[in-house]
Amino acid sequence: MSPKYRGQHLAEKMLKIAEDNAIKNGMLKFKLEVRKSNITAIGFYGNFGYCVTEEVTPDSYLMEKVL
């Protein structure tokens, strides 16, 4: 992310919008794939209720959240 946008909680806002849209469309779970090496992203999603549910590839995890 460009330094001028850091600290504005944009990632949190975008995630919330995506989750809200999923709920509006009748989805019960939100799933995403994240690289195992991206510890920052894994922690970020974990803070919002996402859990690692499986290894998708040798390099990535599937994370899910019940909506």
UniProtKB/TrEMBL annotation:
GO terms for molecular function: acyltransferase activity, transferring groups other than amino-acyl groups. This is GNAT family N-acetyltransferase. The lineage of its organism: Bacteria, Bacillati, Bacillota, Clostridia, Lachnospirales. The keyword Nucleotidyltransferase does not apply. InterPro entries: Acyl_CoA_acyltransferase (IPR016181), GNAT_dom (IPR000182). Residues 1-67 form the N-acetyltransferase domain. Keywords: Transferase. Gene3D superfamilies: 3.40.630.30. Pfam families: Acetyltransf_1. PROSITE patterns: GNAT (PS51186). The keyword Ubl conjugation does not apply.
